[in-house]
């Protein structure tokens, strides 16, 4: 009886395609590396009705920020103690509007410090509201 | 005697189709990222805990030279609110994320009006930060 030989299967990929595969892989990893997602922190800054805001401002905690000093309700507080100080001030407040912390920054306060302090305010349970100084310009003839 | 002309076949090799499709996909993917902000020079501020930021509808940036950008385009702070309101439109809550990229040395007089503009336009503010690296 004659025995038929089984044809051997070609298992290795064609050598001409390896450069294509390598190129595609390079492009793929390059794109992956360039689209790394950003990391950050969400911050809720509520839009407040001006009239209501004015009436409530006296009751809210006020944090004044300069490049060197932090003042909470008129009293200087070191950065290390800010979190505990704010936590104690916010302790008895349950309503969201009572947890509003007015942040007033000196114009020279750098962003890094602002982020650091507002991060502590939020971790203590406060909601940030900015108090900006209004500048009015008048032209005198 | 007539010699038949050899017919040349000009078919595209089917093996390359996958490669071509893949490269086209990557090309279109890169094109879709229209807001190129690579020209903005800024160093992010750091925070102890950061989260992966959601997809932004708009991106506001303040570079090391205190210049303000909206989606990579230089803009004045006075028109930032109006432009953001237009971009955000009637999007529902949860889909109004605005990324804020500020150089860490920028003074408050530059970044606070930008934050206020984002807030008054109804944007959901996300500060883009880097995680603080602790010494080993």
Provide structural commentary.
The complex is a heterodimer of chains A (141) and B (136). Chain A is of the alpha/beta class and 141 residues long. Chain A is built from 4 helices and 6 strands. Chain A has a 5-stranded mixed β-sheet with strand order 4-3-2-5-6, with helices on one face. In chain A, a hairpin with a 4-residue loop joins strand 2 and strand 3. Chain A is rod-shaped and about 105 Å long. Chain B has 136 residues and is an alpha/beta fold. In chain B, strands 5-4-3-6-7 form a 5-stranded mixed β-sheet, with helices on one face. Chain B has a two-stranded parallel ribbon with strand order 1-8. Chains A and B meet through helix 1, strand 1 and helix 4 of A and helix 1, strand 1, strand 2, helix 3 and strand 7 of B. Strand 1 of chain A pairs antiparallel with strand 7 of chain B.
Distance between the termini of chain B: 88 Å
Biggest interface, CB < 8 A? A-B, 34 and 45 residues
Described by its quaternary structure, the protein is heterodimer
Radius of gyration of chain A: 31 Å
The pLDDT mean of chain A sits at 80
The best one-word shape of chain A is rod-shaped
- Rg of chain B (CA only): 24 Å
Strand order of the largest sheet of chain B: 5-4-3-6-7
Order of helices and strands of chain B: HEEEEEHEHEE
Q: What is the chain-wise order of helices and strands of chain A?
A: HEHEEEHEHE
| Unreliable runs of chain A | none
Number of strands of chain B: 8
Largest sheet of chain A: 5 strands, mixed
Q: Helicity level of chain A, as a percent range?
A: 25-40%
In whole angstroms, the N-to-C terminal distance of chain A is 119 Å
* Percent of sequence in beta strands of chain A: 15-25%
From the spread of the alpha carbons, the general shape of chain B counts as: elongated
**What amount of the residues of chain B lies in strands?**
15-25%
Mean pLDDT of chain B: 87
Summing up helix and strand content along with how strands pair, one would put the structural category of chain B as alpha/beta
Number of helices of chain A: 4
